[in-house]
Structure formats: C-alpha cells, structure tokens
Amino acid sequence: MLHSTHYQFRSIRQWIQASLPVRDGCLGVRRVSQLASPAFIASVASTLSIQDDILNDCIKSDSKFLQSYLSAWSAKFGDVQNTLPNKQPFWDRPGVLEDKALVEASLNSIHLWALFLAASTHHSGDWLFAMPIASCGIRLDDEAVRVAVGLRLGLDLCVPHKCHCGSLVDARGLHSFVYTGRSQVGCRPRGVTRPTGVAHSKMARVCILNWPLSLLTSV
User: Fold this and answer.
1) What confidence tens digit (pLDDT) does each residue in 5-22 have?
2) Which of 59, 78, 120, 143 shows its CA 20 to 30 Å from the CA of 164?
3) Long-range pairs of 10-13 with CB within 8 A, sequence gap ≥ 24
4) Same structural domain for residues 36 and 70?
5) Total domains in the fold of the chain
6) Does the pTM exceed 0.70?
C-alpha cells in the first residue's frame, strides 16, 4: 500500500501518522523500532513465572536486557509497576500517544485538522480491514488505494491544473468532491462511475450525479 504512495510523503508528520494505529486516524503500518521494546518487555513479563520454573535449579542472570529496556521506558513514560503488566498495549500505548501528540502539533491548517479529525472518527478506517475480495466488489485497485491513503493523510494527489469545467484544481484534488449548489453534479472525467447515494450512475456527459452534500473529502 505504501509502495504506491511513498513518493508523496512530504514531511515527518505524514510518515509518523502513517505508522500509528488506525483508530488514531492513521494507517496502522507500525514501525519496527516503535514496537520492538513493548513487544520484548511484554513477552518477558508474560513468561517470568515459566522462566523461574525452568531455571529453578540454575544460576539465573540479572536480565540485563530487560532492565535496560525498562529503564529506557520509565525514563520516557514514568515509573514501572512492581508487577510487570504482560499486555503489549500497556507498554506500547504511551509511545503511540507521544507520536500522536507530535502529529497534532504539526497540523498547521484547518484543512489538515479537518482531515485528522475525520480520520480519527469511529469506523472511518474500517475499509483498511476489509478483505480484498474481487468477487464481492470490495477489492480496491492501486489507484483507489493511493487516493484513499492520500485523503486520509493529507497528501498531494495530483498536479495542479484547470478542470474542464473552468475551475482550478489544487494538488489536493478536492475539486471532484465539491457540491456546487446549483445542480447536484460533481466534475469527473468522462465515463467515470461514482455512487449517487442509491446506486452507481454512468452518464455520457462529462459530469455525473453526486450526493447532495457539501464534502471536503471522502474520508
């Protein structure tokens, strides 16, 4: 998925946002460096009792690796409990919230805030979990994924140009979602299909039916 969109990333904010969980308005493509420490600590914590049973008659080490990871984690997120939680989300979530705060701090326009809040709403990222089954009509092609990811992360989708209707289209490509108010149409390339709210309508003209709503994006 990122292979088709990697060239569009323009800032650290977009890379970080792409690596955060879907429920936080992101793509859920987690970074190994972000998951390594929480995964290791949770794994060790969940097997401490088993390790004690297996090594009961052996000389035990001081678990220097575990202690170093715990020290690094506590230096960033606070003191560690005496009884180590064995659930990875406990160790992972503080880092996620830290990165999410960085993303929010870098949202320097109303447009980016609107995108982020829309992407963070419940069920807005459900399409990322859908099985790509072509026979059921739920398989997105590469271009559809590119546009969907771009809208979710606020990436540039096209080269600025002039639409056939005369309007200027910026790099975000949001012109195709505009509801004019005079007629319920949205400018699209000739022959392109799009849902009207009830069914797909394909017309011979340049414009096709659109939802009677004012939309910024389809996020």
Assistant:
1) 444 566 777 888 888 899
2) 143
3) 10/155, 10/156, 11/106, 12/106, 13/102, 13/103, 13/106, 13/107
4) yes
5) 2
6) no
